[in-house]
Amino acid sequence: MPPHPAGLNAGDTGDTRDREPVHGPAGEPVSDGQAAHGESAEHGRRILLTPASAIKMRPVAWTWTDRIPSGALTVIPGREGIGKSLTLAWLTAQITRGVLPGRHHGTPRPVIYAATEDSWAHTIGPRLLAAGADLDMVYRVDVQHDGGFDALTLPRDCAQLGREIQRLGVALLAADPLLSLIHSAIDTHRDRDLRTALEPLVNMADRTGCAVVGLAHFNKSASPDALNLITGSRAFSAVARAVIAIARDDEAGDGSCVMSQAKNNLGRLDLPSLRYVVESVEIPTEEGPAFVGKLTITGESARSVGDILGDGASDGDTRSERDAAAAWLRDYLISQGGEAAWADVRKAARAEGIAERTIQRARTRAGVTIERHGFPSRTVWCLNPGHPASPAAPVTPQSRQSRQLPERGATGATGSPVASLPIPGHVPSPR
């Protein structure tokens, strides 16, 4: 991919238009090395202005359609032990096999995997194999230094890393975790300091078109906003163009986790959340079998990471209150024929003395899904008769069948049940 045109100066674009001479306060001509105010410019630096008309516009290219932009930084934050590293292994497998919906669909591409916390022999390699990655297309990255080897360090190694990415046509740089790649002399809790490492990384990604996906940890705070929970400076979420947050859904009862788009500067934010499970699988090695975790995405989730984090940052409602609210919600929707507009649900709940936040938290427990109808769209809450929390009696007066809505799979596309899809996503981008 060619360098971003916005980074070019007038000389780089071939601009040979005559410029009017610049004059100082007394009318004297000012040289290129001086500012218009008559002050000497810093040695080796000068201001270059490029008209917007000279900058070539480009559409956004997606490594994972609508979720992970190419040529930009994406951060995946979450708490310990919920499969963040397995998410990177899953992404790596999809890209090296060419099956991830996006610009590389149908064309397997290499991945550089930078990991510092886990053993390649015992953990990372087996995870990649279990995920189905083409191991010939996954590269561990080390830096040779003074006769030994160091870990990749930002921003010091950005230039050489960029050259290797271009040489191999790498589609993804996986950083596990992103924080461990930052030079130890940089204070990652100070916004300005952290940007000295992240901005060269982002510029390198833009030049090469490679997607950079880095893992991050949540701090111990309680907040429904995933961006506020990322450990370290706010620069992690500010510099990233996309953030995909992950959280375990204790309400589900099956140990499953949810991933939601918490930030998406280059695309849609109203993407469906995805649910996944982590299962133990056996892989063969020369020294006997090994057991590792494997991430499997099971479909879309009506409950988002924001909903889950909101439970942890409860503003007073108890579990018993949410149970009571869930029971009321089921009864109310049954009385309405199985569905009701969100505005009506909220009004009825308020009349019963149930807070809006409590009824929102009770939605998943009640087996309620959200749909949007019409234009302009309105939000409708629908009772799922097949949910374990729902009564056995069928919901018929205004059931989904009577509305004749097409079934939707994990992609949001019609006609395919979730189980038949290898991975969730949208129709592959033509880019």
Automatic annotation (TrEMBL):
Gene3D superfamilies: P-loop containing nucleotide triphosphate hydrolases
Region (Disordered): 1-46, 386-431
Superkingdom of origin: Bacteria
Protein's name in the database: AAA family ATPase
